[in-house]
UniProtKB/TrEMBL annotation:
Entry-linked InterPro entries: CheY-like_superfamily (IPR011006), HATPase_C_sf (IPR036890), HATPase_dom (IPR003594), His_kinase_dom (IPR005467), HisK_dim/P_dom (IPR003661), HisK_dim/P_sf (IPR036097), Sig_transdc_His_kin-like_C (IPR004358), Sig_transdc_resp-reg_receiver (IPR001789)
Originating species: Rhizobium redzepovicii
Taxonomy of the source species: Bacteria, Pseudomonadati, Pseudomonadota, Alphaproteobacteria, Hyphomicrobiales
Pfam entry (one): HATPase_c
Any coiled-coil regions, as ranges: 16-43, 121-180
PANTHER family found in the cross-reference section: C4-DICARBOXYLATE TRANSPORT SENSOR PROTEIN DCTB (PTHR43065:SF46), SENSOR HISTIDINE KINASE (PTHR43065)
UniProt-recorded name of the protein: histidine kinase
Length: 558
């Protein structure tokens, strides 16, 4: 227990000594003063717990001294005990209490009483100071805890804000992913529908073109009839070109990917592209000479470039520039693109641009913002299909009055060696043909196509036979009937043409087979990589050329 300071004020040293003797048992720190001035000096220098004051002193009596002490802010609540050697009247006692005394002790002093009273006030002082200390500590702890809570609250707010931001970000990412998935599913659905329509339309065109070709040969010479037939054939051929674009979008055209030097390819078609866009549009190119070769069908890539340039021309009605940039692609890879090395080919124009809604639908087939008769809406669809079927992707970025950039991501031909263009034999070099009539089996589930093909073969002087399914064809050949050549459609119910070809190769190894189809649904090869193929619709001349190729081995042997 720490001792407290007790101030004893009396003008008589003997009385001070008696007080000291009586109170020394308390083991407190006793401070003596013989005048008011000396008492104030101690009060100003030292923290006093209890004050004992004599009532009768020569310079200032106890009442005046206590009144002065109470005026000091630090000692307004300090316990003050009056010590009186005379009997005080009741008014004097009331005066003492009024000026600030808390108790009286009369002389002669009873030591036990004085010690008891001083002890009570000293203990009270200690407990008060301890309580103040505890309150101070408590306030400090409250402040510390409050600061901690405020820091925790601030941290919690930051975490909540971060969580809300992450939730918003994840929500946006999810919405974007769902939108991309929806677009991919929509385009895939449109692709399947388009491919099926193109296949059926090719069969119809096959019958139309075949019949028109035969009719043209058999009608008597008449200028008007000739003009009408030619017009009908050209319309059917335009339909054929249209189905090829549809098949490109549906990713069902037959591609012949090879290593392509893009700089060389672009230089070969640059004049054609310049004529397509006209003299008011400048063409700029940034294609490095050491660019890695692309793995793509060169003919289809040329057609894709032509489509992009025509679109750019239509966006530059008042003239402008089209820029082609090719570089190894590293950043900004489209979502869903497989790993590997790619070349990004960008075709940019500084035309009127497109808004966000138009960009979202730009690759849809038949969607166009051009006027009536100015476009089919299949240009970007064809480019999109070529990129996807080639193992790449397409990106379209555009803004109103800022132009449009279409970027093709195409794979690098890492495992392929650059090949020289295949030199086609001169048109004057005709293939050897078979002079005798041939027994030819025509297999097709479409009666119109089958009838048209048979009519073309009969016109060539051959002996065609018909089968509406692969099973009928197998039955026909199993009967031991003569057959020099089989021409079969691929997309047939039950057994496909590719499956039929595998059976025939096994059962009749030397029998030539031509596989025909409205689109390249057998692009996965089926182990028939060397088999001759024809794309519907085909003309009588194309049919004759395919037959000559298929039978060239027999002709050479003969």
């Amino acid at each position: 227990m720490n001792p407290v300071n007790i101030l004893l004020v009396d003008d008589q040293p003997a009385k001070l000594l008696s007080y000291e003797v009586i109170l020394e048992e308390l083991e407190e720190n006793l401070i003596k003063a013989q005048s008011a001035r000396e008492a104030f000096e101690h009060l100003l220098r030292t923290e006093i717990a209890v004050i004992l004051v004599d009532v009768c002193m020569p310079e200032q009596d106890g009442f005046e001294l206590v009144g002065m002490i109470r005026q000091h802010p630090r000692y307004q609540n300090t316990p003050i005990i009056f010590v009186s050697a005379v009997m005080l009247a009741e008014p004097d006692r009331l005066r003492g209490y009024a000026v600030g005394a808390v108790d009286y002790v009369s002389v002669p002093i009873v030591p036990e009483v004085l010690r008891a009273k001083v002890r009570v006030f000293a203990d009270l002082y200690r407990k008060t100071r301890e309580l103040e200390r505890l309150n101070t500590e408590l306030e400090a702890r409250v402040r510390q805890r409050t600061a901690e809570l405020e820091a925790s609250a601030a941290q919690l707010r930051e975490l909540n804000e971060e969580l809300e931001h992450r939730i918003d970000q994840r929500t946006r990412e999810r919405e974007e992913a769902l939108a991309q998935l929806f677009e991919a599913q929509k385009l895939d659905t449109i692709g399947h529908l388009t491919g099926g329509v193109a296949h059926d339309f090719n069969n119809l065109l096959m019958a139309v073109l075949g019949s028109l070709g035969l009719l043209k040969k058999r009608l008597p010479a008449d200028e008007r009839s000739e003009r009408l037939l030619t017009n009908a054939i050209q319309a059917a051929e335009r339909g054929t070109a249209l189905t090829q674009r549809l098949l490109a979008f549906a990713r069902r055209q037959e591609l012949k990917p090879q290593a392509v030097d893009f700089l060389r390819l672009f230089e070969n078609v640059e004049d054609l592209l310049a004529k397509a866009v006209g003299p008011r549009i400048e063409i700029h190119k940034r294609i490095p000479a050491d660019l890695a070769p692309l793995l793509v069908d060169s003919n289809q890539l040329e057609l894709a470039l032509l489509n992009l340039f025509v679109n750019a021309r239509d966006a530059l009605e008042s003239g402008g520039a089209v820029t082609v940039v090719a570089a190894a692609a590293e950043d900004g890879r489209p979502a869903g693109l497989a790993g590997g090395n790619y070349i990004r080919i960008s075709v940019s124009d500084d035309g009127e641009g497109m808004d966000e809604a138009t960009v979202a639908r730009a690759a849809e087939p038949f969607f166009t913002t051009k006027g009536v008769g100015k476009g089919t809406g299949l240009g970007l669809s064809m480019v999109h299909g070529l990129a996807a079927q080639s193992g790449g992707s397409i990106q379209i970025s555009s803004a109103r009055d800022k132009g449009t950039t279409v970027s093709l991501w195409l794979p690098v031909a890492e495992a392929f060696v650059k090949t020289q263009p295949v030199v086609e034999p001169p048109a004057t070099e005709a293939l050897n043909t078979v002079s005798r009539p041939l027994a030819i089996l025509v297999v097709d589930d479409d009666a119109l196509v089958r009838t048209g093909t048979v009519a073309m073969l009969e016109d060539l002087g051959h002996l065609p036979r018909e089968a509406s399914s692969a099973s009928q064809a197998l039955e026909f050949l199993a009967d031991g009937r003569d057959c020099d050549l089989v021409i079969t459609d691929h997309a047939m119910p039950g057994m496909t043409g590719a499956e039929l070809a595998r059976h025939l190769r096994s059962a009749f190894p030397g029998l030539p087979i031509i596989l025909a189809s409205g689109y390249a649904e057998f692009s996965e090869d089926h182990g028939l990589g060397r088999m001759l193929r024809m794309t519907k619709p085909f003309t009588q001349e194309q049919l004759q050329a395919a037959m000559d190729k298929a039978l060239s081995g027999k002709v050479a042997a003969a």
